[in-house]
Amino acid sequence: MALDLDTLCVQAGYTPGNGEPRQIPIIQSTTFKYESSEAMGRLFDLEDSGYFYTRLQNPTNDMVAAKICALEGGTAGMLTSSGQAANFFALFNLCSCGDHIVCSSSIYGGTFNLISVTMAKMGIETTFVNPDCTEDELNAAFRPNTKCVFGETIANPALTVLNIELFAKCAHAHGVPLIVDNTFATPVNCRPGEWGADIVTHSTTKYMDGHGAGVGGAIVDMGKFDWMAHAEKFPGLTTPDDSYHGIVYAEKFGMGGAFITKCTAQLMRDFGSIQSPQNAFLLNLGLESLHVRMPRHCENGLAVASFLSSHDKIEKVSYPSLPGDRFYPMAQKYLPKGSCGVVSFEIKGGRPAAERFMKALKLAAIETHVADARTCCLCPAASTHRQMTDEQLAEAGVPAGMVRLSCGLESSADLISDLEQALAQA
Ligand SMILES: Cc1ncc(COP(=O)(O)O)c(C=O)c1O
């Protein structure tokens, strides 16, 4: 039976049998017992599926991964210890030394650093393109050694919206998959796979958890990319893996299972970035109300963005669901139900005004976090981008007076009153 997304949020991933726990069990065990070495050996050889060591897989994690997979409409999914690990694994599962990535320039700073600094040290180069670039500009970024394209549905903190359909079309024309980080939109507001994305990643730390309780990540494969049709580009998936007795992932697990099986069997085995089963349990609690919380985050985001856009102390507001925003048409296409609760804005008077304003806020707390039930805010120039001069900030598109406000689930009237009194003091 095909179920609505609302039902999947509540029930997907775990169906208890008669007399079994109604809530997903937390399997707090590093290891699993077997009757014979032969039985365990078959697991090591990927001949049977099952659990042997939680660094690779854990039943609690798999139930929650199955829910996220169902929400994104994918064929296989896995949890990771963080969103950073999810994006690294998704990219490194396809790329190795000497390869190349095409990436939207408008992405989370941590991912930008991962790709442009750390992965560059591994010999993986990247060409950055604007999230709303033309087809010609995008096509020009590809090289013969390009292995994937990466972007964020809604970028943190710029709040640009990725032209997913165009990015997918160009990626496929060059024989490579599109990876989309769907953290800010969540599958409630956008399912990138429906627009052509092949792999979807998440920092589950954000709206999926939604309560600031646990750091985590997820990867979902849509199962639509034909690795064998581009076999020469993806030898890791299409040629024998010596560490598993010559298994060819794309042959043994097909389009639906090869990517996640390789990612688990090789990268999780070797890097060990597993999510703790406790955190997976907490994440599942968050997922059970994701479809109820997201509309409220969006309602509060739009109310706050509308209020700020007509305030005389505000220079500029970025919010893709606000009419007049540069990305409004793109948001109407990909995010018709709403975008997210995060609003970026610039206060007249630069950094001192932004600092006075944030200090005066009573409900919104100053935090290095977004997408929480409680409203929080951050001035990038005074925190995450603190080492930059005002000139460097301007070049990076992060003006000194910029505030990133993550609207929680409180009443929008209270949030606006708080902003109003704080702006009076800015
Ligand atoms: C869009 C996006 N992707 C990935 C990450 C990294 O996630 P984590 O902090 O869970 O490692 C973040 C963190 O803010 C993010 O906003």
Bound molecules: pyridoxal-5'-phosphate
The figure for the number of domains is 2
CA distance, first residue to last residue: 55 Å
Please state the CA-atom Rg, rounded to the nearest Å.
22 Å
Q: List the helices and strands in order.
A: HHHEHEHEHEHEHEEHHHHEHEHEEHEH
- Which CATH C-level class of the largest domain is it? Alpha Beta
Strand content: 5-15%
| Low-pLDDT residue intervals, each spanning 5 or more residues | none
User: How many strands, what sense, and barrel or not for the largest sheet?
Assistant: 7 strands, mixed
What's the helix count? 16
If classified by CATH, what would the architecture of the largest domain be?
3-Layer(aba) Sandwich
CATH superfamily of the largest domain: Type I PLP-dependent aspartate aminotransferase-like (Major domain)
Secondary structure: number of strands:
12
Can you list the strand order of the major beta sheet?
A: 1-7-6-5-4-2-3
Q: Which structural class do the helices and strands define?
A: alpha/beta
Q: Can you give the helix content as a percent range?
A: 25-40%
Named CATH topology of the largest domain:
Aspartate Aminotransferase, domain 2
Mean pLDDT: 95
Oligomer: single chain
Spatial shape: globular
